[in-house]
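dude i think i finally got it to work??
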Amino acid sequence: MVIDIPQDEINDLLKFISDKITSTIVMIDYLKEANQLLYVFLIEEDNYIILKSQISNIIIQSITRIHPEALIFEYELQNQFGFNIKNIIQDNSFRFINSNSKGIKFNIDIRSQTMEQVSVSLGKFYREIEHNLVSSNLEEMFSKMSIYFGNCSSAHQICLIHCVEDLINHEISEFNIKSRILVLELERCINHILWMIMVLFDLGFKDAAKEFIEVRKELISTKMEILGNRSASSWIVNPIYYEENRDNIINKLKNSMDSLNLVHNSEQLDVGHEYIDQAFNPLPKQVNEYGLVGPLARANGFKQDMRRKSPFYANVKVTTPKSPRNIFDVRLRESISSITMALEIIESNLIPARQQINYSQSLKINTYSVRSVEAPNGRLTYLIHTDGNGVIDHIRISIPCFVNLPSLKYFIKDKKLKWFPIILRIFDMGIDPLDDIQIQDEKGESVSPSAFSFRKLAQEAILQNKEINLTQK
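look at this
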């Protein structure tokens, strides 16, 4: 549903919708060429409301008091387009700062090794990706996604193709649906295991990390056997299932699941869980359920999982942890659950239904389509718009870590500096080797360690139960 509304009436309608409809996430988009501001309310699966307003005044009211997850979008409106946003929520412990540079910059103020304030500066790289993705050729967009999104490219491709199929009024077969779930769940599991490997290395647990590395290798091999000599994007568009590989694929999936269950039921991760528990405070009860998505939400007791209500998963059993211990435990259990779903699909004797789909045909003209999938790190949403010729001319992406990022303030408050690299992992962002880090103490003295050396110092401080020595070379 798209509603055109005058700018001076938009705040009242925003409040009305938020009061009447609970459990929503909001994303904000600005179409500079058309000078239109869009508030997109995402209501469960692919139901949405778009409030569209022609902008005559760049002074607008913040909606972060009702939708804290909108903070990242309002930050971008200020930083990229010069909007003046009134009453935007700012927290003493966490704030966004303006930057015209690419990448991420962290300014961390500490007192006696405790973080007092963390300022985060995000560059414009994501909006550049969106602009570069725009094309009338689906194959070209898929190819770019494989480069831009790497290990999460299948989720992005599935989300986009759902938008395209919506705009050509096409319903795919059950075989295609299950084939997409299969590749998406394998991607989820492979990503979760990579995340756990990174955390274990951050904590210095190399032996445990090596066990997960072997499981991940086997899962990647299994995925390649399912795909044959085709890419994941080709499989998403036109899956071809090779029945002769079925028994071997089932055995490899069961071996991977047995390995993960063995690790999960052992005590070798208990020390790691203890460290992770020290890094996180429980979120306050008043935090809106839909202010968080993905494993981070489920680790804090929120059941937000699009798969549980999505008709896309109607014929596949979805299980999520009921009482997880922490974020590591959530990802481990969900990895096992994803393999279980993959096995369920492979063992269901998939019968291919031949479909001839012309994705190059013109789409509906002057139309929006919004679609979401439960990506490895939470709800991923694509908003696309077509022009008067039925060609995609605008793409807006809401990625899980952007939705979760405003909650960083709850995790850094009163925490020791040494936990910062581990805390950042929960947003699947971590500290990239190219990121800029500046740490300033109460005396006004600052140091700018490289990302690698900072992680190394934090690891040593955690394992030796001491503080970070910032003068250490």
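The chain has a mean pLDDT of 85.
im so relieved honestly
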